[in-house]
Amino acid sequence: MTEEILVNVSPILTRVARVIDGELVDLTMEPASRRSPVGNIYLGQALSVVPTLRAAFVDVGLERDGFLSADDARELAGDVEDDGAVPPINQLLREGDSILVQVARDAFGDKGARLTTSISLPGRTLIYSPYRTGVALSRRIVDEGERERLMSILDGLLGENEGVIVRTNAEGAELQEFSEELEALREVWRKVLREADKVDAPSTVHADLGAVAKAVRDYVSSPDTTLLIDDADALASAKSYAETVMPSLAERMSLYTGGGNLFDRHELEDQVADVLEPSVALPGGGQIIVETTAALTAIDVDSKGRNRGNPEEAALQTNLEAATEVGRQLRLRGIGGAIVIDFIQMRRRANAERVVETLRDVLRDDPAPTDIGGLSRFGLLEMTRRRVGPPLAELISRICPTCEGHGQIDTPEAAADHALAMAEREVEDNPGGALTIVAAPEVIAVIEGVADAEALGRQLGCSVTLRRDEDMPPDHFDVVRA
């Protein structure tokens, strides 16, 4: 198995792809203008406490006030067990109170970010929990001998009022690595407390890692994983982080110096584009169709006429392929919340159980917790997947103004990023000369926000003109040679 982390950095968008044997497994996109606050810690101020909602709205300095439920504020109640009753929110918090919170889930739709007082600081092998006690192990560590070894090591390192979650990356790690990372995370927590004492609410007291360093922390699981990054500054930042948590990994990082776009060269652009398509082809000729609404995501499994021979066997094979692809697409698209999958009906209970188990196996390594129900007699499966950040479609597309919401178009940032990539390809194929990037005014405004025409010319090695076209659709652009 060959595992690669590929990082494509532009002034507008950073894309991180985890690729195993040529197949896209994980994909993260971070617009420069819209960095996710998930993992950030804030000193917030309670603006309103609503007992009927069992929640409070907290100003943390973001565009919309954050939402803090009573269950997510249990640390304010003192010694309450995880499954114990939490007092009413108005007994935990009053309007005007300052409170230390962390963003657990990004804002989506018209809802603000979800907040928690249960602070956690992730490292590569451990997640440090200053308000929890004891050791919890990742469910993906299944070897009982390894679980016992890890519990023994960590029990001896923890103080009385602190806890850790042991991540899957911890398998095989030794005492010294745990000791060093634990002390580093404790120091981060001490800095958080010192900063919180110095500032007034609302203020940011700790910002989580950016997309590239997060990839080093969260994606790298194999000692043979390699990282290829096409930006020197991003490479330096990633190496700096790796040297503190996994020095051997820094040696396996390199700068992409080939011509053209990194994702193009590794045949990823088509796979990335497919992530936004509603239908996904299955190996045996069927397909799945993904449609997200405000309430839930519906996924339909379509055999597309694959019914020759034994109908039960044909349905089983299509459903098994669909279960594997659904697990992959949920991760790639960042889909969270309620999900309903309409599998092809099967008569045999054993076949239904086999399909459900296949889906569970595919999602076993999913970093977002999932809860998967059984398959009903109508072929419907209900499940949930924790929503952490915005789905990929929301990051790089928006509702089409022409069809009034029945389709999606690129955001100005995504269109600008595509335009610059096309310009780079054009100059690579035909160096020198002059070119003009023609686009809607809002797309040109995004490009000018990161570099003017003169700076782009120096970067591309040719004369560049940026031209606004009021009549051009907002997701269209053209790169024209003079």
Uncertain runs with pLDDT below 50, 5 residues or more? none
Average pLDDT for all residues: 88
Shape: globular
- Structural class label: alpha+beta
The percentage helix is 25-40%
Count of discrete alpha- or pi-helical segments spanning 4 or more residues: 14
Distance between the termini: 47 Å
Describe this structure in words.
The protein has helices spanning 89-92, 144-155, 175-198, 211-218, 232-245, 247-250, 262-265, 269-274, 311-333, 349-363, 392-396, 412-429, 441-450, 453-460; strands spanning 3-9, 13-20, 23-31, 41-50, 55-59, 66-69, 98-105, 114-116, 121-122, 126-129, 134-137, 163-166, 203-206, 226-229, 253-255, 279-281, 287-292, 297-302, 337-342, 370-375, 380-385, 397-399, 408-410, 434-439, 463-468, 477-481. It has 482 residues and is α+β, with helices and mostly antiparallel strands. The strands form six sheets. Strands 4, 5, 6, 7, 8 and 13 form a six-stranded antiparallel β-sheet that branches. The chain has a six-stranded mixed β-sheet with strand order 16-17-18-19-21-20, covered by helices on one side. 32% of the residues lie in helices and 28% in strands. It has five domains: 3-33 and 225-270; 41-118, OB fold (Dihydrolipoamide Acetyltransferase, E2P) (Beta Barrel), CATH 2.40.50; 121-200, no CATH class; 277-385; 401-481, 3-Layer(aba) Sandwich (Hypothetical Protein Ychn, Chain: A), CATH 3.40.1260.20. Helix 2 links the parallel strand 11 and strand 12. The chain is globular. The relative contact order is 0.10. The chain contains 14 helices and 26 strands. The model has no long low-confidence stretch (mean pLDDT 88).
